[in-house]
Specification:
Length: 169
């Protein structure tokens, strides 16, 4: 059942990304949480990722979360993906499910490497670390950076669990 639910989630995510619509009112409200450098960072994401991050933010708000660090992390958690092509996203999901060993071999840094076409796979795979560093450079709080990185579940506790659940919903 878990595999079927994951496939359905990914299918909805794919078809919703074909014509992303960023809700201007939701975005305006969310932007009140971010400082100007963080807003500029949000703007670097594709409309598809902006839409997704706003949906994660809205889910958390509807669940009653009001922690500014958690909500800022929701808005910036996919910034490490950069402007990757849709085919990278599809290839990543398929390889992650069916050929994780091949994904590890292909997901190498693209800039300056002999296989630049796979840089998008690298960014998909390592977007939490890449995004955390971008958020740090933009002046995000240590808590926002840690939530985006998503590594230390014991220190972040329920906030990280809530962010990850909203991201996967």
């Amino acid at each position: 059942m878990r595999a079927a639910a994951r496939a359905l989630y990914r299918s909805r995510q794919f078809f919703g990304s074909l014509r992303p619509r960023v809700d201007a009112d939701l975005r305006a409200g969310a932007f009140r949480l971010l400082r100007e450098p963080e807003r500029r960072l949000f703007e670097t994401m594709t409309p598809r990722d902006q839409q997704h991050c706003l949906h994660v933010y809205r889910r958390l708000r509807r669940q009653g979360h009001d922690d500014p660090d958690l909500l800022a992390a929701a808005l910036l958690h996919d910034v490490g993906k950069g402007r990757i092509a849709l085919w990278h996203r599809v290839a990543y999901v398929l390889l992650e499910a069916w050929a994780p060993g091949l994904l590890r071999r292909l997901a190498v840094p693209g800039e300056g490497s002999e296989r630049p076409a796979f840089g998008g796979l690298y960014r998909c795979r390592h977007h939490p670390e890449l995004g955390a560093e971008l958020a740090r450079q933009a002046g995000a709080s240590d808590q926002v950076v840690a939530l985006i990185r998503g590594e230390d579940a014991s220190a972040l506790g329920e906030r990280l669990v809530a962010l990850q659940a909203a991201d996967e919903a």
